[in-house]
């Protein structure tokens, strides 16, 4: 039986230390820290090809089973992939600990051991191929196939020693204290336990897809970005340029309207600011809009809201179906859980779901990092390449690789 432990904020860091690769789910936000262990039951696959179909109902059924087994307020945790035909990785854990937000002292985390030995790095696709893909996306926009497409690339890193996922998670949390840090077991168990491919989805997303607390709903779409600079004057110049950019503001407005349109059917009221603001991470500036609403009905869960939003134009494009089809043709790899969603939803419907960006899928001695950029009319391939390079720095810095 799961016991729901409530601990003080001062012990949030202890939950981070208690994370165990392959055995735990970890999620931290500006509101709380969650550590979950064990698997009471997994949310089953859908019978048809579309794994998003009836997702909320399948999760609710598992939560009811957990309640019948004695759990007072069970919780679903895990990740949903970008591709709707791929299985979700959602479970009701055996045991969950909750704390307030993470707070750290000023001590710098030690450099991950792998950084000392170095990684072999392979970009997929190569930079030139990525820019060619952007040109294909621009051709599709010019032809009227879609108005925006998000194209991504990956870095495949191989380590000479076993990667310590716990150390990497700790470093990510310390370097991204204002965002959402997560680690989810996404191992593939095809053919039996002996053939399991152990894999962890790990990252520090700046983007809240949606949260629900009682009747209150929040979403924080991001679109439009600039890399940070170590020079304070240049950093502020880039921020001001982003806020004034007609191209980026249009790209941002498209995403905000899509998120608002998806939320309106569920909400009695919805507050959508008319102007974006700026938020910052260690590596990026982003245009940001905080959308807040009030639900019409408490039966609408955070998972139902998240499923209605996924994927937003911030990670896919507009129109969604046409952009997603083009992505599958242009990108030379499967996105997996990148640009999907990760988070939690309890049996009362409360929860938090974030967009799975600034992330990697980690195996014993390998990491696959992902980064994408939104392509609209007027985009330049070399600028989009530079943007993805800047977005890689969230993971690379946490790994002790402080390249510009």
TrEMBL record:
One GO MF annotation is: isochorismate synthase activity
Q: Which reaction does it catalyse?
A: chorismate = isochorismate
What is this enzyme's EC? 5.4.4.2
- Asked whether the keyword Isomerase is assigned, the reply is yes
Q: Which domain of life is it from?
A: Bacteria
Membrane-crossing ranges are none
Q: Report the residue ranges that make up the Chorismate-utilising enzyme C-terminal domain in this protein.
A: 127-391
UniProt-listed GO biological process terms: salicylic acid biosynthetic process
Would the keyword Isomerase turn up in this protein's UniProt record?
yes
InterPro entries, per the entry: ADC_synthase, Chorismate_C, IsoChor_synthase
UniProt entry keywords in alphabetical sequence = Isomerase
Q: What class of enzyme is it?
A: isomerase
What family is it from? Answer: Belongs to the isochorismate synthase family.
Q: What is this protein called in UniProt?
A: isochorismate synthase
This chain's source organism reads: Bacillus swezeyi
Task: Give the taxonomic lineage as stored in the record.
Answer: Bacteria, Bacillati, Bacillota, Bacilli, Bacillales
């Amino acid at each position: 039986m799961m016991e729901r432990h409530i601990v003080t904020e001062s012990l949030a860091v202890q939950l981070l230390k208690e994370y165990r690769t392959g055995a735990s789910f970890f999620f931290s936000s500006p509101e709380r820290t969650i550590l979950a262990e064990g698997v009471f039951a997994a949310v089953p696959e859908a019978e048809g090809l579309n794994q998003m179909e009836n997702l909320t109902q399948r999760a609710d059924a598992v939560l009811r089973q957990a309640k019948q087994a004695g759990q007072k307020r069970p919780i679903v945790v895990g990740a949903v992939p970008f591709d709707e035909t791929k299985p979700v990785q959602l479970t009701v854990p055996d045991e969950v600990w909750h704390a307030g937000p993470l707070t750290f002292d000023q001590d710098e985390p030690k450099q991950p051991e792998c950084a000392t030995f170095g990684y072999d790095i392979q970009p997929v696709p190569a930079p030139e191929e990525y820019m060619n893909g952007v040109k294909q996306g621009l051709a599709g926009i010019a032809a009227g196939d879609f108005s925006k497409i998000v194209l991504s690339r990956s870095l495949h890193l191989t380590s000479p020693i076993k990667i310590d996922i716990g150390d990497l998670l700790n470093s990510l949390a310390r370097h991204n204290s204002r965002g959402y840090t997560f680690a989810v077991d996404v191992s593939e168990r095809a053919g039996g336990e002996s053939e399991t491919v152990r894999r962890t989805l790990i990252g520090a997303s700046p983007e809240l897809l949606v949260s629900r607390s009682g009747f209150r709903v929040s979403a924080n779409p991001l679109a439009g970005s600039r890399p940070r600079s170590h020079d304070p004057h240049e950093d502020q110049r880039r921020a001001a340029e982003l806020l004034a950019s007609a191209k980026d503001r249009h790209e941002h407005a498209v995403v905000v309207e899509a998120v608002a349109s998806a939320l309106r059917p569920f909400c009695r009221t919805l507050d959508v600011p008319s102007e974006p603001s700026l938020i910052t991470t260690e590596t990026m500036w982003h245009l940001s809009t905080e959308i807040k609403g009030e639900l019409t009905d408490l039966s609408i869960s955070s998972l139902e809201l998240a499923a209605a939003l996924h994927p937003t134009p911030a990670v896919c494009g507009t129109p969604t179906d046409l952009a997603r089809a083009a992505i599958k043709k242009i990108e030379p790899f499967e996105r997996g859980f990148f640009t999907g969603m990760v988070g939690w939803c309890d049996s009362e419907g409360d929860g938090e779901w974030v967009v799975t960006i600034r992330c990697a899928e980690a195996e014993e001695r390998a990491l696959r990092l992902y980064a994408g950029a939104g392509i609209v009319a007027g985009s330049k391939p070399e600028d989009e390449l530079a943007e993805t390079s800047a977005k890689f720095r969230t993971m690379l810095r946490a790994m002790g690789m402080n390249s510009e």
